[in-house]
Amino acid sequence: MKKYFYTLLLFGLGYSVAFAGNPDRQGEAGAAELLLNPWARSAGLHSMSTASVSGVEAMRINIAGLSRISKGELVIGNTRLYEGSTLGINSVGFATKAGKNGAFGISLVAMDFGEINVTTTAQPSGTGGTYSPSFFNIGLGYAYTYENKISVGILVRTISETLPDVSASGIAIDAGVQYVSGDKDEFKLGIALRNIGSPMEFGGEGLSFRTDAPGSAPNYEITVNQRAEDFELPSLLNIGLSYDMYFGETNFLRGIVNFTSNAFSRDDIGVGAEFSFRDMVVLRGAYKLALDAGDGVEENLYTGLAGGVSIDVPLKRADNRTVGIDYAYRATNPFRGTHNFSIRLGF
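^ thats the sequence. predicted structure below, dont judge the formating
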């Protein structure tokens, strides 16, 4: 297994150099919804569970953890983004075992913008009509675990952003690795590369307008199509470590350290912890900060504290069937934080 461990380290070091933060590129990426976490368990750790995440939530954090489920999992989530902004996220994910060591998963994440008033240059206060943008992405992933020590995974995600008269679409790829060691798999290392894809570009009738034809008689109009500038996806690299300290057979305290290298914003580093009691109640909390912040430069939106709780009720313990309820809160600046709720069915 040493060769797998060294390969894992080389993979992380190579990509950490390739995707080191570049301050000159901040704010240039689009499709920012790919950075939003709709799942409550990992949100309670500020999305820093790169090494320990498993099941459906792994499709947003580290796809390699998808295969670390018993048989299957269904998760439905709702997120109230930036309390006071009326923005939200609705999500559903499903994962199932494929053979002894593999797993497939699919997830759908959709933004909820509410109803927005239609305005024009002639009626800036509104026409009386409303519209709602449609931003969603669908991910399809596969992961495989070798000898319960090293897991690898890949996910392909389609992205759609649509307004009434313009739209953009694209494809992103995630890849990840997890390594575990110890009698109870207490040591974990995870590396995930996310949102790698081709640039996206808006197009549609909304970018067309009528104007007088150059050098023609008055009132002779033509339709001119404008070309929008393309934009990159918000690529990032996560490197995380975790260690579990057991108190009895089922109680443990997990410590987490995570570093995120953002290609289009400041890098993040943070620590977290979660305490699991009898596989029924889990309490978690984390703190994250942006590197190189200060000197009048604002930090990333999600910095500071995060916390959450999970309650799992066994249906048939012999079959590992459970129903779980998760909640998480993340501090934001500005606004009044983000709330995540989810319901899980394990089978």
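The chain has a mean pLDDT of 88.
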